[in-house]
Amino acid sequence: MLIQKxxxxxxxxxxxxxVERFGKPGGPMTEIEGxxxxxxxxxxxxxxxxxxxxxxxxxxxxxxxxxxxEKSPAHIEGHRNQRNQEKPEYLISTVVDMYEVKAVKLxx
Length: 108
What we know:
Layout: E1 2-11, H1 15-23, E2 35-42, E3 51-60, H2 63-70, H3 73-83, E4 91-100
C-alpha cells in the first residue's frame, strides 16, 4: 500500500475551503483502479492564531495504482488548468510526502 500525504497550511479561517475542495464526493480519482480512499483532516489545536493545517491522505493499493492516477488524462488536465490560475491568497504552503505501508494492525 502507498499513502500520499498532502499537508496544506492556510490562513486562519480558511480550512473549510480546503476541506470542501478535497472532500467532494466522487471525482475521477475514485475511478482509478487501485484507489482505496481519500481522507481530509483538520489539525486540532493551532500553533498560532494565524494558521490552520489541513491534511489530505490518499491511500492506494500500490505505487503502480498511484502512477496510473498521476499519468491519467484527468489528473494531467487538472494540473494544466491550475497553471493558469493564481494560488488562493489564503494558501501559505503545501508539503507532499509519500509513504510505503510496511505494517497494518486490524481489530481482533
